[in-house]
Write a structure and sequence with these properties.
Blueprint (H helix, E strand, L loop, with lengths): L6 H41 L2 E4 L3 E3 L3 E7 L6 E7 L2 E2 L3 E2 L12 E4 L6 E6 L9 E7 L6 E9 L15 E3 L4 E3 L4 H4 L5 E10 L5 E2 L2 E8 L5 E6 L3 E2 L4 E9 L6 E9 L2 E10 L3 H29 L4 H8 L21 H12 L12 H4 L10
Parallel strand pairs: 2-10
Antiparallel strand pairs: 1-3, 3-8, 4-7, 4-9, 5-6, 9-10, 11-13, 12-13, 13-18, 14-17, 15-16, 15-19, 19-20
């Protein structure tokens, strides 16, 4: 037989290799998928934010250096020493368990690393303590590092209440009225009232809620509010949390309620404009120019020159009263400068005595005779 060469021969020779590849490929596919899935997990583990401390224990008044890696580039972070917390369970009581007055802020570099000195202060809650690092803006991220405050009290952590699950059972509402001071720019304040129920198998003790206030297109600003009490499994509780805006706030606001990472309810709030402040500025713009004008006119009236006649006329005293039997001498209304000066001279001279009718000189004179008698 002659050996055939050509496409048909090549196809027959390649058929065993093809069959071997098809047989091995299904066995390699699971390993290939596992390797692909393992790479993102390894990257995520490498990019998880971490925190390290220069000292694991220090007393009040000391100082430690806090370093971190794997954070978002150029992110603003908050550094706090918190009590009643562990890296495994986190800060149980929220930032109310931290020494907020001694906290520090730091901004990460482009690679997400930072290093900052933190003064040691005693938190309001007993240890175990941690150094809590969390982002302030943007995507939420946090990390804790165990730390011991020397000389600070130590207590056991409260039991876990992770089996509890709170849900809002009724519509939320804002209670309270504005006072007269609010009309003049005081911070508006209300109470957010809602009813929650525990849908989980474990009780919820002293839950920490977050109240967010949003105005316009801005993102809500969250503040922690802790409610003291216990919600048993299957029970409900009526909760009232204080809500306060900044001074002079007005317009449409959105109040949000969040527990954990879930927003439970939202409530709109329309705040009126503080017209008292506007009225105050309007009155100020009217009263101040009027007062300045009055003061200026008083100064001008004090420093302007005065005429001699007007000064004397204004200061002259009324003369002595005339006798009852004599006719009253009248003074013309319009006087010239000379008549006014003469009147002033007469007022300054002594008044001569008047003659009575009995002693008048005309009575003692002889009467004139008629022409015939003369």
């Amino acid at each position: 037989m002659t050996r055939q060469t050509g496409p048909e021969a090549l196809r027959r020779a390649a058929s065993p290799a093809r069959l071997l590849t098809l047989a091995v490929l299904p066995a390699l596919l699971p390993a290939l998928f596992l390797s692909v899935l393992a790479v993102p997990g390894a990257r995520a583990a490498e990019s998880a934010p971490t925190v390290s401390l220069s000292k694991k224990e220090a007393g009040k008044g000391g100082e430690i250096t806090v370093s971190g890696k794997g954070w978002r580039g150029e992110a603003l972070l908050m550094l706090l020493i918190c009590g009643q917390a562990t890296p495994e369970r986190g800060v149980i009581g929220g930032t109310n368990s931290c020494a907020n007055g001694a906290g520090r802020a730091v901004t990460t570099d482009e690679k997400g690393a930072f290093s900052k000195k933190l003064p040691v202060a005693e938190p309001p809650e007993p240890c175990p303590c941690v150094v809590h690092v969390a982002t302030v803006t943007g995507e939420q991220a946090s990390a804790d590092a165990a730390f011991t405050v020397a000389g600070h009290p130590t207590a056991e952590l409260p039991r876990r209440t992770g089996g509890g699950k709170l849900a809002v059972l009724a519509a939320t509402r804002l209670e309270g009225d504005s006072s007269l001071l609010t009309w003049f720019g005081a911070p508006p304040a209300r109470r957010l009232v809602f009813t929650v129920g525990n849908l989980g198998p474990a009780p919820v003790e002293d839950p920490v809620f977050e109240i967010g206030t949003a105005h316009g297109v801005y993102a809500p600003q969250w503040e922690e509010r802790q409610w003291r009490g216990t919600v048993a499994p299957g029970a409900r509780a009526r909760i009232a949390l204080p809500v306060e805006l900044s001074a002079g706030a007005h317009g449409d606001y959105q109040i949000s309620l969040r527990y954990g990472k879930k927003v439970l309810a939202e409530q709109p709030w329309g705040v009126g404009r503080p017209w008292g402040v506007t009225l105050f500025w309007v009155l100020l713009c009217l009263v101040v120019p009027a007062a300045v004008f009055r003061i200026g006119m008083a100064v001008v009236d004090r420093i302007r020159p005065r005429t001699v006649g007007a000064h004397r006329t204004a200061g002259a005293r009324p003369g002595p009263a005339v006798s009852k039997g004599l006719p009253r001498r009248t003074t013309p209304v319009a006087r010239t400068a000379r008549s006014a000066a003469a009147a002033d001279a007469d007022a300054t001279t002594a008044v001569l005595p008047w003659f009575t009718p009995d002693s008048a000189p005309s009575e003692n004179r002889p009467r004139p005779t008629t022409k015939g008698q003369a």
